[in-house]
Amino acid sequence: MKTSLNKKLIALFTCTALSSFNALANIEVGLSLGTSKPKNYDQCACTPDGSIVDIEAEVDIDLAFAQMRYVFDNGVFVELRHGKGFSKSESRVTPRGGETVRGLDIELDGLTNASIGYRFLADQTLSPYVMVGTTTNIVLTAFLPDGPKFDRENYSNEFSYGAGVNWNLSENILVGLEYFQYSNGDLGGTGEVDLSTWSASIAYRF
After folding, report:
1. Can you tell me the distance from the alpha carbon of 38 to that of 61, in angstroms, rounded to the nearest whole number?
2. Tell me: the pLDDT tens digits for 11-39?
């Protein structure tokens, strides 16, 4: 399912770029700083009787993104971004119907996203936008509390979407605020991750 969806997004990405080829365009290169509370959903034999239950592990992570956006004059844009967490943080694990306890320390080693989007009112001071795309290589590394690396998970071909607003401070400088859902997991879905961010950005327009 994810592979099929990813192929459709790549096709949409390509068609959008080709259909906008004759429109004038700008390149925007920027940096975003954000915060996230990723949740990992899995199963664990962590009850007193040893039975397997669904668990939710949540962690607070601050992260940074480098991004490049190719914006056409008709408002359509394509974007590539790569992000990484600053440091590992203590997770909170909650078995279904149980009490929250300390879990492993988690570190976000990286993620890569490719998206297409549409910017409204592109020639105005404030310009909201929407995006849809795919995220690959969401790499979460787990460590024993104050100890060595324990495990590493890699999530790919995740459907992604988001929205934000840009403030055009000048012809070349813009800042922004954005919400983005990189991956959407559910409790009961073994080995899934729910990762969304709120971020602020600054970019230079060429």
Report:
1. 8
2. 555 555 555 555 557 899 999 999 998 88
Q: How many CB atoms lie within 10 A of CB 167?
A: 12
60, 72 Cβ separation under 8 angstroms: no
pTM (predicted TM-score): 0.82
Residues 114-149 as b/e (b if ≥16 CB within 10 A, e otherwise) read bbbbbbeebeeeebebebebbbbebbbbbbeeeeee
Q: Retrieve residue 76's tokens.
A: 């359509």
Half-sphere exposure of 3 (CA within 13 A, CB side): 0
Q: DSSP string spanning 64-120? A: EEEEEEEEETTSEEEEEEEEEESS-EEEEEEETTS--EEEEEEEEEEEEEEEEEEET
Rounded to whole angstroms, how far apart are CA atoms 158 and 13? 15
> Is residue 10's pLDDT more than 60?
no
